[in-house]
Structures are given as structure tokens and as C-alpha cells.
Specification:
Strand content: under 5%
Helix content: over 70%
Number of helices: 17
Structural class: mainly alpha
Oligomer: single chain
Length: about 475
């Protein structure tokens, strides 16, 4: 944990109280500033620009009345994400912690609520996301070399195990791999954008007809839901706020820069898809990237896009593993029953036990998905409602902490307060409602696990919480 270097007398009192509270539960080894700004930006871009950009554009196109709305909804997704990033910048700069959202929720609402969040991260949100991304990688790897009926599941388990081991080796190895994967991913994306704009299709595509849609609020809202899902992941920056060499005050720069780059890439790649396939062609496609490359470069292009999607999934997966283990580490610091998660390996600069447990649970979810025979869809249904519920609560925590701890130094303050956080909270509430409506019965398992976590805490609260000396 870091204290702000310049505080007023009142601020010093509050921060000394926070520091003493943290010292009661912190292990001897703790995260040390080891990340440069470029490392943090690469991590965020890598986790956001994943395989989703090759899956969601067709749904967005099917729910957009014309190409202007289609392009506009992607820009709007960037603006909404930017609003959220401003809120997270204040929280991360004022309360830097390897626990990220967990630390914000604990400070605002208490240890009981933060336990529920950490339980959800371990059992639903992060592990479900890891399994989902692993399935995407596994599906495309199976196209290159099939391992039989459960080929995608075998590949998914393999990549989770390998990337978990790489992160256990230490933060420098993990971020080095991330920069390499992200660089290769960007090269592939630039190739796709160039092909979409400059290579004429050599096979017929539905590029000249426009779908007949009514400009209804419901269809545009559905389009925005999928766009925002594609933008998801930038909030993971909160988990590395205490590990920046330049200090948490630069989190605003990290988040804003990342989202601006992501928005530009998303708009360009969607315009490339649109230029080749047209809106109706995109809406009718189950894999817009594959159809675009087949229409322009033939089967060689299909191999290229398959490799790129696998690479994108691996890039996001590596970062998701990296950040997910850090909230598990925060849980171990605060609750005795999970104290083994709160051990930080100083030599590796990594929460090794947290990484191991996270990998085991993600593997079990992959096995579950294999038996359902629709692993990717099962993981989407499983994670979405719980994710948006806690995203909403984190937005509320900003306003709670402004009122509860007004004298804590805030190197960055969200502009136009309270309008900006209210907008963010409103968007999160809408997406929570929409995810429950869209996923239907598939969401019940994730919600059920959240309820089990609440019951577990209420029954074993005295045994779970660490005793104060």
C-alpha cells in the first residue's frame, strides 16, 4: 500500500489510521512498484482488445438502422468507458491497492461486502472470464489441429495451465510476454484494417444492400450492450495501481490513454469490416473477420484471421490471469480462512497461491463447459450479471467515499462531480438489467454462487474474519 506524500494534518490522521489498519493484515511481502506507465497501458489494451471484437460486430450491425448509427454506437462505447475510467482514476489514485475494486468496496461498504465481491471474483467473474477466453483460443486452435471431440476443452485447459505458470515465474516475465503478444496482435489488426480498406473483394458479398431496421430504442440499446461488453476489461487497471513506479497519481493517464487507443482501433476495424461486407453482410455473418478475409484474400486470409483471434484471446487471457490473482491476494489478507491466498512471493513479485487456486477453478469451469457442449455461451451467461452488479457498486463507492472520507488526498478528482459518477452508475444499472434479461436462465448459476457466498459469510463470519490483536 502507498500513502500520499503530501497531506494536510487532517489527511495525515486519516491516512495513518488506514496505514495502521492495513499493517495489521499485510504479510511481510507485499507488492512493490515494478510497472512503468507503458507496461500498465499495454496490460489494459491487451485485456480489452480481445477476441470479442471478432464476435460482436455482427450483432451490433444487426441492431443498427444504418452505418452512421453503427459507427456512432462504437464511439459511444468509448465515451461511456471514458466516463467510467475517470471514476476509476479517482478511486485508484486516492486508494491505491493490489486489491483494486475489492479495496474500494471494502473501504466504502465494509469487509462483509468486500468478501462477497472477492468470492464472486474467484468463483464467477474472473475465473469465468478466464474460461471464456480459453474457450475462444481453444476453438481456433482446434481448427488448425483437432484433438478429437473435446479438442477445444483440451486446448483451453492447456493455455490456462501454461499462462498461469508463466505468471507464477514473476511479474517481469508476465509483462514481457504481454508486450510481445500485444505487439503481434496489433500487427495482425493493422493488416486486417489495411485489407478492409485497400483490397477489393474477389468473391461476391452483401456489401451494397442495407438491412431494413426500424430505429427503435430497444435495438440500439442492444447494440450498445454488445459494444460495452467488447470494451470490458479496462477496470483491471485498478489492480495494478499500487505497482506503478511513477505512483498511483498517473492512473488517469494510463486509463484515458488506453481507452482512446482502444476506441480508435475498434472504430477502424469495424469500418474495415463494413467496407468489405456492408451492414447487411455483417449482420448475416457469424464470423465477420473470417468472412471479410475470405472475400479478400481467400483461404490464406482465413488462416491469418484464425491465428489473430487465437492471439487476441491469449493476450486477454494472460492479463486476466495476471490481475485476477491480485484480488484473491487481497481477500487472503483480510480473512483468516483464506490466509494462504494473502502470501506474496517477493522474489517472483507475484501472489503464487492465488494464481494456483485461480487456475484450478478456471480449469473446473472449462470442464463444466465441456459437458454442456457450448462452453463459450455458458461462460457469457455465467459471468455477465454478477460482473455488472459489482461494477455498479464500485461506481456508487466513489460517491460514498467522497462523503465518508473527504479529507483523504485525491491526486485526481473526477471532473463534473457528481454528474460523471451518476452517469456511470446509470449505465451500469442499465447493463445489469439488460444482462439479466438477455442471459435468462444461464445467469442463474452465477447468481446462485453469489447467494451461496453470502450464506457462507453469514454462517461463518466469526471464523472467516481475522481477529484483531
Amino acid at each position: 500500500m502507498q500513502e500520499n506524500s503530501t497531506n494536510s494534518p487532517g489527511e495525515s490522521t486519516v491516512n495513518r489510521h488506514l496505514s495502521s489498519e492495513q499493517n495489521e493484515t499485510c504479510p511481510l511481502e507485499a507488492p512493490k512498484p515494478a510497472l512503468r506507465l507503458i507496461d500498465a497501458i499495454v496490460l489494459i489494451i491487451g485485456i480489452v482488445i480481445g477476441a470479442g471484437i471478432f464476435r460482436t460486430p455482427s450483432v451490433v450491425a444487426a441492431n443498427s438502422p444504418d452505418w452512421l448509427w453503427f459507427a456512432g454506437v462504437w464511439v459511444m462505447g468509448g465515451l461511456v468507458s471514458l466516463i467510467g475510467a475517470l471514476c476509476y482514476s479517482e478511486l485508484s489514485s486516492a486508494f491505491p491497492s493490489a486489491g483494486g475494486d475489492y479495496h474500494f468496496l471494502k473501504t466504502a461498504f465494509g469487509k462483509g461486502f468486500s468478501f462477497l465481491f472477492a468470492w464472486a471474483r474467484i468463483t464467477v467473474i474472473q475465473t469465468g472470464s478466464i474460461a471464456l477466453l480459453a474457450y475462444i483460443a481453444g476453438d481456433y486452435m482446434s481448427q488448425l489441429l483437432s484433438l478429437g471431440e473435446y479438442s477445444a476443452s483440451f486446448y483451453a485447459i492447456l493455455v490456462v495451465v501454461v499462462l498461469t505458470l508463466i505468471n507464477i515465474l514473476g511479474i517481469q516475465f508476465g509483462t514481457g510476454l504481454q508486450k510481445l503478444l500485444t505487439a503481434l496482435q496489433f500487427v495482425g489488426i493493422l493488416i486486417i484494417i489495411a485489407v478492409g480498406f485497400f483490397v477489393e473483394p474477389n468473391t461476391p458479398v452483401l456489401a451494397t444492400q442495407e438491412p431494413v431496421l426500424t430505429s427503435s430504442f430497444s435495438t440500439l440499446s442492444l447494440a450498445l450492450i454488445f459494444v460495452l461488453l467488447t470494451f470490458g476489461g479496462w477496470n483491471e487497471a485498478a489492480y495494478i495501481s499500487s505497482e506503478l513506479k511513477t505512483g498511483s497519481k498517473n492512473m488517469a493517464f494510463v486509463l484515458v490513454t488506453s481507452i482512446l487507443v482502444i476506441t480508435l482501433v475498434y472504430v477502424l476495424i469495424n469500418m474495415a469490416f463494413l467496407n468489405v461486407l456492408g451492414l447487411q453482410g455483417m449482420a448475416a455473418s457469424d464470423a465477420v473477420g473470417v468472412d471479410m478475409m475470405r472475400a479478400t484474400l481467400g483461404e490464406k486470409g482465413v488462416v491469418l484471421i484464425g491465428t489473430l483471434v487465437s492471439l487476441s484471446a491469449l493476450t486477454s487471457l494472460n492479463t486476466t490471469i495476471f490481475t485476477g490473482a491480485r484480488s484473491n491476494y487481497a481477500l487472503g489478507k483480510d480473512f483468516s480462512l483464506f490466509s494462504f491466498l494473502g502470501k506474496w512471493n517477493g522474489k517472483k513479485s507475484a501472489p503464487v497461491n492465488s494464481l494456483i487456486l485461480q487456475g484450478i477453478i478456471a480449469t473446473l469451469l472449462i470442464i463444466f463447459g465441456a459437458f454442456t457442449r457450448n462452453g463459450f455461451e455458458s461462460m457469457v451467461d455465467f459471468t455477465a450479471p454478477v460482473f455488472w452488479f459489482f461494477f455498479l457498486c464500485t461506481g456508487i463507492s466513489l460517491m460514498v467515499l467522497r462523503a465518508k472520507m473527504p479529507v483523504v488526498a485525491r491526486p485526481f478528482k473526477v471532473p463534473l462531480y457528481p454528474v460523471t459518477p451518476i452517469l456511470f452508475i446509470g449505465f451500469c444499472a442499465y447493463l445489469l438489467y439488460s444482462s439479466l434479461t438477455y442471459t435468462g436462465k444461464g445467469a442463474l448459476l452465477g447468481v446462485a454462487l453469489l447467494v451461496i457466498g453470502l450464506i457462507f459469510y453469514l454462517l461463518f463470519k466469526n471464523k472467516v474474519s481475522k481477529k484483531r490483536n
